[in-house]
Design brief:
The structure holds 2 protein chains of 2 kinds.
Chain A (H helix, E strand, L loop, with lengths): L1 E10 L2 E11 L4 E5 L6 H8 L7 E6 L2 E2 L5 H5 L2 E4 L11 H12 L4 H14 L16 H13 L5 E5 L7 H18 L2 E5 L3 H7 L3 E5 L2 E6 L1 H6 L4 H8 L8
Parallel strand pairs in A: 3-8, 3-9, 6-7, 7-8
Antiparallel strand pairs in A: 1-2, 1-4, 4-5, 9-10
Chain B lengths: L1 H28 L2 E6 L2 H16 L4 E7 L2 H9 L5 E5 H8 L8 H10 L2 E3 L9 E6 H7 L15 E3 L1 H5 L1 H11 L7 E2 L2 H10 L4 E5 L3 H5 L2 E3 L12 E6 H6 L1 H8 L7 H13 L4 H12 L9 H7 L2 H35 L1 H16 L2 H12 L3 H25 L3 H9 L4 H31 L12 H9 L3 H29 L2 H4 L6
Parallel strand pairs in B: 1-2, 1-3, 6-7, 6-8
Antiparallel strand pairs in B: 3-10, 4-10, 5-8, 5-9
Classes of the chains: A alpha/beta, B alpha/beta.
The structure holds adenosine-5'-triphosphate and magnesium ion.
């Protein structure tokens, strides 16, 4: 489904991503973890063509990502940022509808039906969508951003710390909802997170990145049981959980 | 027989109609265009030329109170005006500066190369001069500057400029060997007061100043010819002589008609007594030149002023602002967009637009007149150029300061560039763009007063006339409406901001 072949990126002297080859099957969820600045967002941006790799290429369903195909391919990928990236001058509703309207694929009734469906899916009251992004809470904004990412029913979802800014309760609910959405809609998902629990919850295919390289790929348990390097085991253990009993 | 007679009548009717409409056509197409500078003497002399033209039943257009010698000279060359009164000294020192063109004959030759003719001098010489109270001069029997060195007790008071100029006091003192060390430098108004009160004996003046008459001064003769001469002459285009030979003949016969004292009197009537220049000019010509010349009635003239003028000025001002600002918006917003979308061009665009802003308005107008002539067009071009920077910069800044995550989201949605601009970038930058336009508009309203310098009218007109006549009230009649207009424009744009900036940008965000 999603193939990255030998892609690399450097900024001047700084190598952000060493040549990396990666393939993600349809309907699969992959989680990217790793220390700050290791190149997770860069990788995601290269997949959706916001950054052009210095070498290698990206293919989606066999189509090579080039400047000609990039906009069409983007319609098959939903991209959600940590702060949502909602357009403040448009209502939440218009934020969600913007691409569907632009592409004129659907008429207004169909758009409305789709938005109602997504609102139910993300558990947002539909009336709330008439507000501007400045008038709703951070968690609600995040759900709206996810609705926008899902609007065209893209086969691929790229989520860059979509729940980083949410309180634990909201996050807990949203995680449940998202996981269900991913499974039910058969999405191919790349999710970036800093939270080991979240990583384990969403996938048993986790990529740990370090210094622009994939340090280890596998289930979180493998990272604990058979770490590929000293770094992996230190990174995995560097999480504090409250001792509940 | 009958048909023949009818035909004759028809022929006559057609012929008369043709002649009349041709006459009308000539009248409508081809007025005599007179120019004048923005000081009273020039306006009075301009009115004299107009009076002569009217007397020949020619249509006249007086472009009065233009803002500088260069404007008139360029307009004459560009065939925007047909004639105006210039001074020999100005021709040598300013128009042909550095070309060594001195003396009427060489000036005449030089002018001929540009298709311009020069009349014989009108009679007066408006140069720097020294003035004394008539009684005091008579008491000392003083008539010439060369006699001054015999009276070391005289008290002198001069304006700053006269003291500092190389061709002013220092040279004069040396030339006439005036044995004086101390001179008082003071403002002209104070100098006149001093000479009136008797605390000063000699002051610097222009030989045709209105004050020569109103303070009853004797102008000392520059018998060693120290000061350059500024003899008044009429400059006119060669083609005017072909079009209206009779009129040009009358203009030429003005030679020697106006002596220094007459000119000072005319200035005094217009500037101090505030008589309309057209009446001052016509009265003089009637009395001293040709008694068949009609003097316009004063009622007519006064009535034509005030409100009517206010509305004309307001209309002209609005026109200048509206057209130049609209054009500036149409050009600057796209320029700002280009500067944003193509950063490589952006630096150039902002740089060039910024440099335009620093060109002094006088210089810009002089550059523009040879291309567009006089009137609204060059004024609009100048205002247009001055309006670019705030809008281009507002647009560019507004677009460039979009948050990276919004920019990224817009790209990642797969919106093509044009749609991104229309749906996201421009609406989000609308506040910055509008405030750029607002700044431009307010500056534009103020700057539009320069329109009067090149005959485009507007609220600058009463300001120029007010300065010329030292009429504070008249200056306010231009300055206050211009200020009110600027405030109205500001209010209008603040209102527009409320309604044009998308609602989502006007709410206070609940968090972040
Ligand atoms: N435009 C740029 N120019 C230079 N360096 C950049 C640029 N963008 C990113 N970097 C660098 O590239 C590296 C990788 O950045 P990236 O955003 O991919 O990190 P990340 O893994 O997403 O980190 P985080 O977990 O903090 O989000 C960082 O060191 C960053 O400083
Ligand atoms: Mg990141």
């Amino acid at each position: 489904m999603l193939e990255l072949e030998n892609i690399s990126k450097r900024y001047g002297d700084l190598t952000v991503l060493e040549p990396t080859t990666l393939s993600i099957a349809k309907g699969q969820t992959v989680v990217l973890i790793g220390p700050s600045g290791c190149g997770k967002s860069t990788l995601l941006r290269m997949i959706i063509g916001l950054i052009t790799p210095d070498s290698g290429h990206v293919k989606l369903d066999g189509t090579l990502l080039t400047s000609e195909t990039v906009n069409t391919l983007r319609h098959s990928m939903g991209y959600v940022l940590q702060d949502g990236g909602l357009f403040p001058h448009l209502s939440a509703y218009d934020n969600v509808a913007i691409m569907a309207r632009h592409l004129e694929r659907w008429n207004n009734n169909e758009i409305h039906a789709r938005i109602e469906q997504l609102a139910a899916l993300t558990k947002l009251p539909i009336e709330l969508l008439s507000r501007f992004p400045g008038q709703i809470s951070g968690g609600q904004r995040q759900r709206v951003a996810i609705m926008r990412g899902l609007m065209l029913d893209p086969p691929v979802l790229l989520l860059d710390e979509p729940m980083g800014a949410l309180d634990p309760l909201v996050r807990y609910d949203l995680q449940e909802d998202l996981k269900e959405i991913f499974r039910n809609l058969q999405k191919t998902v790349v999710l970036v997170t800093h939270d080991m629990g979240e990583a384990a919850f969403f996938a048993n295919d986790v990529l740990l990145m370090a210094h622009g390289k994939i340090a280890q790929r596998g289930a979180i348990e493998d990272f604990l049981d058979s770490p590929a390097s000293d770094f992996v085991s230190r990174f995995i253990r560097a999480q504090r959980f409250p001792k509940l009993n | 027989m009958r048909i023949c007679f009818f035909n004759q009548i028809l022929n006559r009717v057609v012929l008369t109609w043709l002649v009349l409409s041709c006459g009308w056509w000539i009248q409508a197409q081809d007025p005599v265009r007179i120019g004048s500078k923005s000081f009273t003497e020039s306006v009075v002399l301009g009115e004299m030329l107009c009076t002569l033209a009217r007397h020949e039943h020619l249509p006249v257009h007086h472009r009065s109170e233009l803002g500088g010698t260069q404007f008139l000279w360029q307009a004459l060359l560009k065939n925007e005006i047909d004639a105006y009164v210039e001074y020999s000294g100005t021709l040598s020192e300013e128009i042909f500066a550095g070309q060594g063109v001195f003396g009427l004959e060489s000036i005449r030759e030089e002018l001929a190369d540009s298709g311009i003719r020069m009349s014989q001098p009108l009679g007066f010489n408006n140069s720097y001069a020294l003035g004394m109270k008539r009684a005091r001069a008579a008491e000392l029997n003083l008539t010439k500057m060369s006699q001054l060195h015999a009276f070391p007790e005289l008290r002198y008071g001069f304006g700053d400029e006269f003291i500092e100029r190389r061709d002013g006091w220092q040279g004069l003192k040396a030339k006439y060997r005036i044995p004086i060390e101390e001179t008082r430098s003071l403002d002209h108004a104070l100098a006149y007061r001093g000479i009136q009160a008797g605390s000063l004996d000699v002051i610097d003046i222009y030989s045709t100043d209105a004050e020569v008459v109103s303070y009853d001064l004797t102008v000392l003769e520059d018998d060693l010819a120290y000061f350059p001469t500024y003899e008044a002459v009429v400059l006119y285009r060669v083609d005017l002589a072909n079009r209206y030979p009779k009129f040009v003949e009358r203009v030429e016969s003005l030679a020697g008609v106006i002596d220094n004292h007459s000119m000072a009197e005319l200035n005094q009537q217009a500037r101090i007594n505030r008589k309309p220049e057209s009446i001052v000019a016509a009265t003089f010509l009637h009395d001293r030149f040709d008694t068949t010349i009609e003097i316009p009635s004063i009622q007519q003239q006064i009535a034509a002023r005030r409100w009517q003028k206010f509305f004309v000025n307001a209309r002209e001002h609005c026109f200048l602002v509206f057209v130049s600002l609209s054009l500036a918006i149409l050009v600057s917003v796209p320029l700002g967009i280009v500067a944003y979308k193509f950063p490589h061009w952006g630096g150039w665009i902002l740089g060039v637009v910024g440099i335009i802003q620093t060109i002094p308005s006088m210089a810009l107008l002089v550059l523009v007149i040879p291309i567009l002539g006089l009137g609204a067009a060059p004024a609009i071009l100048a205002l247009f150029l001055y309006s670019l920077l705030p809008i281009v910069r507002g647009t560019h800044t507004g677009l460039s300061s979009l948050s990276p995550s919004i920019h990224e989201s817009a790209l990642a949605l797969g919106l093509p560039s044009a749609a991104r601009l229309r749906l996201i970038e421009l609406p989000l930058a609308s506040q910055a763009i509008l405030s750029g336009i607002k700044t431009s508009a307010v500056i534009n309203v103020g700057t539009a007063t320069i329109g009067a310098l090149i005959g485009a009218g507007g609220f600058g007109q009463p300001i120029i006339t007010g300065i010329r006549l030292s009429d504070f009230w008249l200056i306010l009649q231009g300055a206050i409406p211009a200020a009110v207009f600027a405030l109205l424009v500001q209010a209008l744009f603040s209102w527009a901001e409320m309604h044009l900036v998308p609602a989502g940008l006007r709410i206070q965000p609940s968090s972040e």
